[in-house]
């Protein structure tokens, strides 16, 4: 199994954009394909573009937004969509964010959360590389 068969969608709030880019770059350096709106323009069909990227990903990396984040419902929606599609959701608490000041929706509350204040960014990326599943390819046998 090559790491190239692993693709993540990073779901994040605008306030976490810099951290999302840093984490995305480390994952790319480790052979993981990264999607999200990090560097993609969808034009007028943003929701369809995001949906395609979530469908194409093998996992979603959720950067947990703060309670005051304006678009946090969009982030929860993306995570819920990934779960509905059977994709693992891997949660990361961005640096400087107090775990007590965040709240996960009940359907996501059981997630293991990687705290970027308690681990180095390299350690977070390494853990994610191991947690992201590779694409399952179907092999059809000829009769």
From TrEMBL:
Domain TIR residue range list: 8-118
Gene Ontology terms describing biological process: signal transduction
InterPro entries for this protein: TIR_dom (IPR000157), Toll_tir_struct_dom_sf (IPR035897)
Highest taxon of the lineage: Bacteria
Pfam families referenced in this protein's UniProt entry, alphabetically: TIR_2
Signal sequence, renumbered to the chain: none
Matching Gene3D superfamilies: Toll/interleukin-1 receptor homology (TIR) domain
Name of the protein in question: TIR domain-containing protein
Native species: Rhodopseudomonas rhenobacensis
Lineage of producing organism: Bacteria, Pseudomonadati, Pseudomonadota, Alphaproteobacteria, Hyphomicrobiales
């Amino acid at each position: 199994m090559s790491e190239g068969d692993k693709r993540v969608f990073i779901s994040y709030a605008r306030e976490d954009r810099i951290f999302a880019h840093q984490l995305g770059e480390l994952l790319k350096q480790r052979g993981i394909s990264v999607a999200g709106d990090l560097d993609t323009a969808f034009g007028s069909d943003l929701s369809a573009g995001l949906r395609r990227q979530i469908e194409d990903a093998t996992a979603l990396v959720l950067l947990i937004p703060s309670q005051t984040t304006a678009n946090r419902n969009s982030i929860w929606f993306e995570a819920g969509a990934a779960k509905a599609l059977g994709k693992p959701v891997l949660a990361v608490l961005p640096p400087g964010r107090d775990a007590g000041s965040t709240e996960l929706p009940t359907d996501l509350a059981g997630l293991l959360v990687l705290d970027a204040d308690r681990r180095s960014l390299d350690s977070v990326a390494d853990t994610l590389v191991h947690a992201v599943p590779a694409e399952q390819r179907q092999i059809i046998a000829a009769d």
